Automatic annotation (TrEMBL):
Ranges annotated as spanning the membrane: none
FAD/NAD(P)-binding domain boundaries: 10-137
Coiled coil: none
Gene3D superfamilies: FAD/NAD(P)-binding domain (3.50.50.60)
A molecular-function term among this protein's GO annotations: oxidoreductase activity
InterPro entries: FAD/NAD-bd_sf, FAD/NAD-binding_dom
Protein name per its UniProtKB record: FAD/NAD(P)-binding domain-containing protein
Amino acid sequence: MKAIDRLTADALIIGGSHAGLSAALTLYRSVHTTVIFDNNMPRNSYATAVRHTSTWEGRTPAEMREASRKELVSTGLTTFVDATAESVLRTSEGLFEVTDNTGSRWQGRTLLLATGSTDIFPDLEGYLDLYTRGMYVLFSEKRVRTAS
Ligand SMILES: Cc1cc2nc3c(=O)[nH]c(=O)nc-3n(C[C@H](O)[C@H](O)[C@H](O)COP(=O)(O)OP(=O)(O)OC[C@H]3O[C@@H](n4cnc5c(N)ncnc54)[C@H](O)[C@@H]3O)c2cc1C
């Protein structure tokens, strides 16, 4: 699928990390087409391994996302746009129209926001340097690291 004037997707999904990918997979099962916008800034982009997800233990979140992308591309129903969704408007026909940061416009019948959340770090010197390398957000991560 190419940017519009073109085809109307069943759903435009802003955010192509775990939530957006899972949504697209669910929609594919109902034979719905999706366009996923992602600018590759997932919350777990720090040096960290996947935990609590059966069969992915210890691998990187990027590997997991890449596998999911391949799976979705192979369905032929999902299009990935590696760009920032900059604005959304409602057209007079009731469609959602996303404009990305390359200026391309995309239309869809529904809009799904999977943009994640942003961490606000304490203003402590060295905190970010140690984040996930000694300063753990997940207690279970600390236990795994200190046990090994
Ligand atoms: C250090 C750390 C370790 C973690 N480890 C684990 C773990 O081991 N196991 C586990 O289950 N969970 C873990 N988590 C939690 C997990 O990372 C989050 O639950 C998960 O990333 C949430 O997924 P999401 O899709 O909701 O949001 P995100 O992963 O934050 O993804 C949002 C996506 O939307 C994109 N985006 C946002 N706005 C736009 C826009 N306007 N246009 C285009 N793209 C946009 C971003 O670039 C990003 O890719 C960890 C979190 C952290 C911080």
